[in-house]
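Fresh eyes needed here. Have a critical look at this protein's tokenised backbone.
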Amino acid sequence: MGKYLKIIAAVLVVSIFIGLITHISKLQATVKALMEQNEQLQNENSALTIDLELARQEAQLGGQTPTKPMQPKFAYLTFDDGPSANTEQILNILQEYGVKATFFVIGSETEYGKHLYRRIVEEGHAIGLHSYNHVYADIYKSEEAFMDSMYKLRELIEETTGVRPDILRFPGGSNTSYAKHYGGPDLAASLVARIHREGMQYFDWNVSSLDATKPVVETNVIVEATLRGAQGRNQAIVLLHDAPAKRTTVEALPAIIEGLLAQGYTFEVLKRDTPPVHFRLP
């Protein structure tokens, strides 16, 4: 009898042990999923913080005088704040149309984020730096803080894709008021000089899709703003976003591509030697 009790006890111990292992595995999977969801929400919140800043810059864009049209005309579709699930859909649309674009990305250590970095590069698009975490208070507190954020992101992208980015976009644009607010009146100018000393180039934009002027912008507004802003230009550097919240940007993309083609544009990617668009520094 005692022998059977020992066997039963041993079986129970093994069953409990297996149950604990299974439970721990499920907990680990849940924690991983929650961490990835949290990162996605953080990215979305970071994207939303620039809404007011971009709205402020629309007045400056509206005052720019387009250059006289000539052939060829080049359009540069640029997407800020990815990678996210929207990036995947955008890549699918670009592939369908045979169009290349430029992605100014932020940091993502998830396997899905790294997959998207690789896909951007493997499909012939340009990948540029947009800071590691897109938190203005951290990025713009000093020159070193800004550059450290860019270096951290550059290292991640190079390790993941084998490509070392040499182009970047300032979070909020090079004339963002946050640089002055957090780092003082001379920070923007010192950052521009530092970027150029290190052999990199930065790009602002001369066509805004208006897709970040509020959390969700109507699809037709994004299309109309982009096509109207591109009219009469030789070079159109278009600001778009692929953050998690920007689903209407995905919806607008086919009409944007078709509309720019109808205006006579050829699509290109931004490179370090592309003639840049730079805002007037504050």
Q: What stands out?
A: The longest strand covers residues 73-80. The first helix runs from residue 2 to 48. The mean pLDDT is 86. The chain has one domain: 51-267.
